[in-house]
Amino acid sequence: MFEMLKSVSTSVAQFQSSVSHPETTQAIMNHITTLPSSLSCDIFNQWIELKDVARLDSAMCVNNLRPTFLNLLSCAGCVIETKTELAHRSFLSWLLMREIKVQYFFISGNVDEELGVQYMRTHGSVVKTIIREACRPTATQSRHFGLEIIKEACHYGNLTCLQYFGISVPFLIEVLSRCPSLQELHTLAFKSTTDNLTLPSCASLTDLRVYGDVRILLSIISVSPNLQKLSSLGGIINDAALIEIAEKSRNLRFLGLQRASCSKPAFVTMTTLCTEIHYSF
Predict the structure, then answer these.
(1) What's the pTM?
(2) Which of 62, 111, 161, 174 has CB 3.0 to 4.6 Å from 129, enough for a Cys bridge?
(3) CA dihedral 157, 160, 164, 167 (to 10 degrees)
(4) For the segment 19-39, what is each residue's pLDDT rounded down to a tens digit?
C-alpha cells in the first residue's frame, strides 16, 4: 500500500505540472485508472484542482480512456473538495453536463443564479461550504445575489460553512433551522427589530463572525454553547456584552473585537471564565 501511495503522489505531481501535454497526461491517467476506484476518486477529490479537471477534459477529447474518465467524474464517490470559483455560465454548464459534484461553492457577483439553483437541485446534497463574494450592490446587481442558490442548498441541511453578507433575520433563522451541522458562520445580518430574537439551537457552531448588530451576535451566541472562535466587527462591544459572551461561551479560544468599549474588570471576568482565551483587537 505504501508503494502504491508513493506512486500515486508522484503521478499527481507530474499531472499537475503537465496537464496541458496530452501524451504525458494520457500516461498518467492510464496509471490512475489502474488503481482501485476509491483511490482514483480520492485523487480527483483531494489532490487535483477543478480547473485542472476541466483542462483534462479538453486534453482527453479523443482518447480511449475518455469513457473511463467520464465515468469516474460522474460516479457517486467523486466529490471535488478543492476550492474553485463557480461563477461563469460556461463553467456551471460544464459541471452540470459532466455531472461533477463539488463540496465548495464560491458565488461571485456575476454568478448565473438560474444555473446555480439548477446545480443545487441536482448536486446540492454534497455541498458543504458556500461563500458569497462580499461586494457592494450596483445598478445591475442586487445586494441579494446568490440568495436563491443558498436557499436551495439549505434544503438538504448539509452545510457546514456559510459566509454570506447581507442576510435578513428571517433567512438567518431559516439557515440555522435547516442546517444543524453548521460549524462556521460569517455574516452581516440586517438589524433586528427586536431585542429578544429567538433562534434555533446551534450546537455544532464553533466559528462565528458577525458584522454589525451586536444584538444579533449575542442572540446567536446564546444558542451556540460550543463556540471556540468569535469575531465581532462593526458593532461596539461594551462591558455587559463582553460578560454575556464570557458566561455563555466558556469554550472560547479566540475573541476578535474590532470596536470594544470595555473596562479592565470585564476583561478579567472574560479571562477567568474562558481560561484558554486569546484576543485580537
Answers:
(1) 0.84
(2) 161
(3) 40
(4) 555 666 677 777 777 788 888
Q: Would you state the torsion angle of the CA atoms of residues 87, 205, 257, 167, taken in this order, to the nearest 10 degrees?
A: 50
Residues near 82 by beta carbon (within 8 Å), at least 6 away in sequence: 46, 48, 49, 50, 104
Long-range contacts formed by 15-19: CB under 8 A, 24+ apart: 15/48, 15/52, 16/48, 16/49, 16/52, 19/52, 19/55, 19/56, 19/59
Residue with cell 472560547: 252
8-state DSSP, 126: G
Cα separation, 129 vs 144, in Å, equals 18
**pLDDT at residue 2 in the model:** 45
Given a contact cutoff of 8 angstroms between Cβ atoms, the answer to whether 150 and 115 are in contact is no
Alpha helices (H) in the chain, listed in sequence order? 2-18, 22-32, 37-42, 50-59, 66-74, 89-98, 113-123, 147-154, 169-178, 214-222, 239-248, 264-273
The grid coordinates listed for 141 are: 446587481
d(CA 183, CA 206): 5
Share of the chain above pLDDT 70, in %: 81
